[in-house]
Amino acid sequence: MELLKINRLQHVGIPVTDIKTSIAFYEKLGFYNAMSSTFTFNDEEGGMVAMMQNGDIILELYQMPETELQKIRARKDGHVDHIAFDVDDVEATFLTFKNAGYTVMEPQPVFLAFWKNGCKYFNILGPDGERLEFNQIL
Asked: What kind and span of H or E run contains 10?
């Protein structure tokens, strides 16, 4: 596999059970809400996301729709869900991983209507099942 250009750590994804409470908590730590949106998961509306920023650090707080919240509440070993890396060309990065035989979790990069012009991402699995996201803000 050719050397992959990763610009920086883009964000750390943290599932939460009450997004308003979590936003307030991180605001007390000096973060501000740089972007908020909603999303659908498995055809269920009600997902909410907030990108909390403090300097160059971004935490993605997201609350799943109601039917998924019990799974989040039941976690025992922490709540960090994924680490996201910023890339310049998500399509080319996707093909690089797919062609190299990595376990790519999505059939193609996924578009989300986050940020001003949206973003595209995909995940690969690391050797212990950790999710590594590659994300391009459009």
From this structure: strand 8-15
Length of the chain: 138
Q: What is the CATH number of the domain that holds 130?
A: 3.10.180.10
Domain hosting residue 16, numbered range: 8-137
Question: For residues 61 and 16, what is the distance between their CA atoms, to the nearest angstrom?
Answer: 6
Residue 1 counted as domain residue: no
Cβ partners under 8 Å of residue 20, min gap 6: none
Q: Is the dihedral of CA 103, 42, 59, 129 positive or negative?
A: negative
Indicate whether 13 belongs to any domain: yes
Counting the structural domains of the chain, the total is 1
- 71-80 pLDDT tens trace: 888 877 667 7
- Rounded to whole angstroms, the Cα distance separating 103 from 114 reads 25
Task: Kindly report whether the global pTM for this prediction surpasses the value 0.70.
Answer: no
Longest distance between any two alpha carbons in the chain, whole Å: 44
16 phi, psi to nearest 5 deg:
-130, 160
The four Cα atoms 94, 130, 66, 137 give a dihedral, to 10 degrees, of -40
